[in-house]
Amino acid sequence: MRESLRQVVEYNAVIADPANEKLLIEEDGRTFTVRHSTGSWGPDVVEAIDWFALAMFLTRARAATGRPLAPLRVCVTHGAPREYRRLAQLFGTTRIDFEAPYNSITFHDDDVRAPLPKAQPGLDRLLAHQARLTLAAAQPVMLWQDSFRMVLAGAFREDSVNLEYVAGRLAMSPRTLQRRLRELGTTWREEVESVRQERTMELLRTTDVPLQVIAARVGYSDMRALRRAVRRWDGRAPRDIRNAAGLAAPAPRSGG
Length: 256
Description:
By secondary structure, this protein is of the alpha+beta class. It contains twelve helices and five strands. Strands 1-2-5-3-4 form a five-stranded mixed β-sheet.
């Protein structure tokens, strides 16, 4: 089982996003610990994933060895629930440390070196080879910032550009969203301004939508604010940008 768990860590990227799901093994000759962490989702989602991952390691270890293994210790970064008798029953131990520095499950070294009675000789090498092929052929997944910008762009189209709405669409709290943006060296305000600029320039270059409509769509109070922003971004007036794109400005409506 020791080698199987080591391969789980090595080929984690086959089934999980390595940017979010982190696995680490620690050994000291007496114990064998698997550490796990997930992405910055909403707090409830993170807690559910953390518990699921630790329980999955234990469930699969029991199934593979055919023995009712009990870990030496389970650690979670979350606070203790009011009643955790069921958790103790699930893991087979009362040694559950809450508010720990990291999530982990620790086995006795003798347990992880136990033979796997149902193992098929050579299957591990075949699966490892397939995992390497899968990773070699894998396409890059969308980065978190790309997902965020897609949601933010959608919020512009739906006239719902506010922190709470976008954070909810990403299944995280506004505070977590702001922290993730800080980690990327940006801020909510900067990202909103960046998408606003992209949206505005796209509308100017590809449509003949009136300026007052564009201003409303991207969140400006009037055309004057839009014109000032466009000149700041591009150095030209909106009319010049449209002329360069071959789009004639719509004729003003006559009164009456």
